[in-house]
Amino acid sequence: MEHVAKEVRLSKGSILFQEGDPGDGMYIIRQGEVEISVLSESGRKLALNIMGPEEVLGEIGLFGGDRTATATALSDCVLASIRRPEVLAELKTNPDLALEFINLLSERLRYVSAQLGERTFLPLSARLARRLLYLDGKVGEKSGSVPVSQADLADFVGTTRESVAKTLSVWKLNGWVSISRGKVNLLNMDALEELAEQLPD
To answer: From residue 81, how far is each of 6, 142, 154 by CA, in Å?
Structure first.
């Protein structure tokens, strides 16, 4: 597919596509990070994921319908754009490629289902611990320093910024995290992993 890809560059804060836009293709991230989010019925943003280099986004747009989420550049990004007609033409000559798309869509569905289950059944402390550990691997490069604001964390775990701040303050007193502007440092991975393994209330 690389031979039909076109380069797209986005500056930090730019929107690649919005929820409800016509779907016309997919993207492969080459550099940078992209946030995937949706809006609730009340207009509140719910962040679903942060995607980084070599990850694919917008694949649902290949098969018709509107975009199911909004993609926003969290940093300056370089992406490879592949349009629907090019993918469909490739599928005709390489039917095995369809299996790769089925696997990708199945993986995405499992991820969204897991997110829904977490937000529905898990206590805030477990959701927050899971999200911080996940983001440490995605954008913190497993350094224990997660470059994310408390407002963004609230979007990720489906709660208010005040609730996130209150929970992080308790964790700070326990020596599990330290907090600076736009960043959470994970100081006690064992404690956070134990929280992340909490069962539903």
So the answer is: 5, 29, 31
Please check whether residue 9 is in contact with residue 78, taking contact to mean a CB–CB distance below 8 angstroms: yes
Cβ contact 71:16 at 8 Å: yes
Show contacts of 115-118: CB within 8 Å, 24+ apart: 115/48
User: CA-based angle 178:198:69, to the nearest 5?
Assistant: 75
E strand or H helix at 78, and its extent? Answer: strand 77-83
Contact present, 13 and 66 (Cβ < 8 Å): no
Q: Which residues, listed in sequence order, are joined to residue 26 by a DSSP beta bridge?
A: 82
Count H helices, E strands: the chain? 6, 11
pTM of the model: 0.78
Q: Could you tell me which residues are beta bridge partners of residue 56?
A: 28
Tell me, letter by letter, the H, E, C secondary structure of 34-76. Answer: EEEEEECCCCCEEEEEEECCCCEECHHHHHCCECCCEEEECCC
Each residue's pLDDT tens digit, 176-195: 999 998 899 999 999 999 99
